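ARCHIVE CARD
Drawer: 12
Card no.: 0347
Subject: one protein chain, sequence and derived structure
Cross-reference: see card 0346
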Amino acid sequence: MALTAMTGFYIVIVLLLAFALLAVRDLSETKLRKLRSELLALRTHEQQLAARKAEVQQLIGWVNESLRRARDRQVAEQKAWGELDDLLTETGIHVGPMQQELTQDVAAGP
């Protein structure tokens, strides 16, 4: 009789452990599903950030190219004006900065 009581007790313990394991497994699966969905969201966000980074890098390249072209134009214009100033100086024409007198309306302001 003592043996069957102990066997019944062990069966109850095994059943309780089995239910506990099933409950823990369900909780773990729920957490894993949640983590998977978060991971997918993070991957999507990462891809969006990578696309934005590429766009920004392209814009930076365009701006740098525009600045380089503007600088090259400025250097060429300064060189041309320097050559023109040298030619005028050689011919005896001295060109300096122009001073312009303001009319009374402009000088008075609004």
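Annotation on reverse: The two ends are 114 Å apart (CA to CA). The chain has one domain: 7-83.
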